[in-house]
Amino acid sequence: MPLVKATITTSSPPLPPRPNNANILVGMLSSSSNISRTMKALDNGYSLAKQEKFYNGIYNATVRVLDTCDGMSSMTETLNLILNDSVDVLFGAHCTANCIATAQAANYWNIPYFPLNCFDPRLDDSTLYLTVIRFFGSLTSFGASFAAYFKRYQWENVAIMIESEADFCNSALNAIQSSLRGDMVTVAEIVQLPADISSLDASIFSKIRRSARSLCKV
């Protein structure tokens, strides 16, 4: 679907929701390397909405490329989409800092926000982020499921292995740590691994085995 430029400019909050057969303008935040993936996810959602007869109109998308991961840049681009492009809905953002900033702006301006790659447990607070529609389940519940499993088998020590510089892994780690420590489980070791572990020194697993009863790979 071709990308279009918005022509409407406003300095006030968006209008009330439109009928389900009206055209909508989607504001999309994406890194340059993820534009095609984000557009595919958007198209898949649109096709499903048409199939289920939730929405019978068409949509256009205006895209803001954001290759930095900091809240200020994301807030700037989000406000450009809301105030200058007059979008009806927000979609995307590719890291936690960007997602949190966009969610705050979307909540203030009462704009629906679909965060595509956002895993931070703070977004679980539906009293704070009223307009966020999560693609993925709550990582708070994800962490709690680990705690329940450990309690069932009475495991008290764990080592956690995560992929370094991966946003999902960092957020999942925080959720798991919080739940395990709340249940008095000791996180004996946190090991950050590269994405390619084919040449990893096997001695690291021996070291982990000495310090922990079980191993989680996130």
From TrEMBL:
Which Gene3D superfamilies does this one have? 3.40.50.2300
Q: What is its main location?
A: membrane
Query: Superkingdom of this entry's organism?
Result: Eukaryota
One Pfam family of this chain: ANF_receptor
Q: Which residues belong to any copy of the Receptor ligand binding region domain?
A: 54-210
Molecular function (GO) terms for this protein are: peptide hormone binding; signaling receptor activity
Annotated compartments: Membrane
Give a GO biological-process term.
signal transduction
Q: Which GO terms describe its cellular component?
A: membrane
Task: Identify the keywords attached in UniProt to this record, alphabetized.
Answer: Membrane, Transmembrane, Transmembrane helix
Can you tell me where the transmembrane regions are? none
Under the heading InterPro entries, the entry gives: ANF_lig-bd_rcpt (IPR001828), ANP_Clearance_Receptor (IPR052612), Peripla_BP_I (IPR028082)
Q: Report what the protein is called.
A: Receptor ligand binding region domain-containing protein
- Organism annotation: Helobdella robusta
